[in-house]
Amino acid sequence: MNLNGFTDCHTHTSFSPDSDASAIDMCNRALELGLSAYAITDHAECNRWYGIEHYSSAVPNAYDTYNCGLDFENSLAFSTKLKEEYKGKLNLIAGIELGQATHDFEVADKAVSDKRLDFVIGSIHQLQGYDDFAFLKYENENPLDIKAVNELLKKNYLEILNLAKWGKFDVLGHLTYTLRYIEGDAGIKVDMTLFDDIIEEIFKTIIQNGNGIEINTSGLRQKYGQPFPTPNYVKMYKDLGGEILTLGSDAHRPEDIGKGIKEGTEIAKICGFKYIAYYKERKPNFIKL
Q: Quick one: pLDDT at residue 141?
């Protein structure tokens, strides 16, 4: 697979709790594919930034991981080092996926102020008082009915709206992340039009703040079978005036780097985009499609 001229701006290494991949192996794979830009964006979860003893009650957390601030430092230090080692060979981006900034704005503000950062993805993986959406039970144990699912999703999109209003990230990560589990794994069909008004407000806020969104292609290789977000929302963002769009595989292992990126690029074109972006020193750089 040759991906010369393509970008992958969302990947994870062993500095993320859900990956065992060596950052060097990931970079070598990106180099092998010929990517024009490649970003390491390890998880930095604001709601688990400190050790468990810091919290009055444990954050619901099936990953059983805390001290995410230490992971942030280790990942960023290593990716910054790799930028020098791969200079002239690989256009490496030192980034993070900042999770749950809305749960601790003080931590979030501190994280995004780090001058070593090229790129920040803003994401919501869980709501306060809930575990990560990956671990909630939607059908088998303590099943949620569709009314409860819709209430959960409304809370989620209102939380993302709060994240958008904070706005100190570069692009919004996988807007429809929850559907990976609700529709893809549990098989519960959701009427997303119920949330279109909130999503439109999210997009308007992002655009006003000068931020972008991503097409996260991980859903294409998963049971869900679609990107996050789906093309209709990419088109909504474009029609509202959105111009900054990145592409990311959300790879957690070398063999998934670049997967779905060509398909994501075609979606971008169909939705009216003429450029794709990647970030360096927190500024977007544009590649003509």
A: 44
